[in-house]
Amino acid sequence: MSYKYSKKKILILGIGLTGISCINFFLKRGAMPKIIDESNKPYYLDKIPKNIQYKLGSLEKKWILESDLIIISPGVSSFKPILIEARMLGIEIISDIELFSREAKSPIISITGTNGKSTVSTMVKKISENLGYKVYLGGNIGFPALDMLEKKSDLYILELSSFQLENIFSLQSKIAAVLNIKEDHLDRYPGGFKQYKKTKLSIYKNSEICLVNAKEKNYFFKKSCKKCITFGTNDSDYYIDNIQDKVFLYCKETKILDISKTSLYGYQNYENALVSLAISDAMCFPRDKAIDVLSNFSSLPHRFQIVHKRNNISWINDSKSTNIDSTKAALKNINTKGTIWLLLGGDKKSADFNILKNYLEKLKIKVYCFGKDGMNIAKIFQKKSIYVQNLKDAMTLISKEVRSGDIVLLSPGCSSKDQFKNFEERGNLFITLSKELS
Predict the structure, then answer these.
(1) Binding site, residues?
(2) Domain locations along the chain
(3) What CATH code would you report for 10-94?
(4) Which active-site residues does the annotation give?
(5) Which of 81, 136, 299, 345 is most buried by its number of CB atoms within 10 A?
(6) Where does ATP bind (predicted)?
(7) Residue positions forming the annotated binding site for ATP
(8) Architecture in CATH for domain 305-437
(9) 238: CB partners within 8 A, 6+ apart
(10) pTM of the model as a whole
């Protein structure tokens, strides 16, 4: 189907990288969009071409209701009353990923999940490149999806958040994978976890091959795709098993990778590698090439990354941890007789940190809580926790008490947006301070 945009009244919501990519997309197709941002000082305001009309500070009702087509950025909630009203009036509301899906000519691998999606997406990209494919990774990581259309490609990889999946209708993936679904972003969804889960699962619609986590079997229906591949449990197509204290990745009953011969650390990364192998096999890539890439793969920045080690004290940057489950996964990866100094806090997005209470009580741990919801989180862990205003204050206090054999872990379980531009800025501050304070 060929889509014409030149005669439509087009409105873009959000002046971020996504919004700028949407402006460029429409200008190249002869359309002149308008754009709105709810911030009074959006970061990329200077990137807007001079001939584009824009409004700042709030959603302009008149502009919204007179539009034919609205492109909504991931940071803008689809459930705002004015957007619900627009839908009821028949105004089309879509995402940049929907625009991309309408135009893409190369096969698409789509990956989502509460945790691990950036790592899996990067692993698959590296495997594809090792085989000589021209491949681009975009969406929630890498390029804005629409920018990838300008590049000659054999394969697209989309890393998709639930926010990006809210307004997609034409996506037809060669392979779609949902890595896991844990409680997250509950402040975004009026229908709570059930609605968040449904949004994640929408990635399977119209997909040729669906990669399914068998540990979360209650959420999947095989009618969603033509072919289903499972992972995660010992009766799955792909699984992880231990033999005499060694960890191996299996396909069916065939041992395919000895983890001890890789640079991978932590169960979450073992499972990420497992899924990447499953995707590689489904694409009919030579397995030895995939194994070669995974054997030499190092953790992505800000994802359980040992950034400093001195006086037998390890400082681990897991700033990408923005939900409770990712914090729990990080703690499970730690094996020490010393004390764990956990840095927790930020914007908890309505999550219930009581879930962690029983787990933390079993550990030799001290919890330093900071940021917008730090005080409320600290109250949950009582004797094991202390509240401080910010990350620097917390690390300064920890540096005075930490001892040989201890581990300092930044795994906040919260969004960074209360005190930082993004999780990268939060992680970079942790790296700088860990070296200065130790």
Answers:
(1) 113-119
(2) 10-94, 99-295, 305-437
(3) 3.40.50.720
(4) 117, 140, 185
(5) 345
(6) 113-119
(7) 113-119
(8) Alpha-Beta Complex (3.90)
(9) 229, 230, 231, 232, 249, 250, 251, 274, 275, 277, 278
(10) 0.87
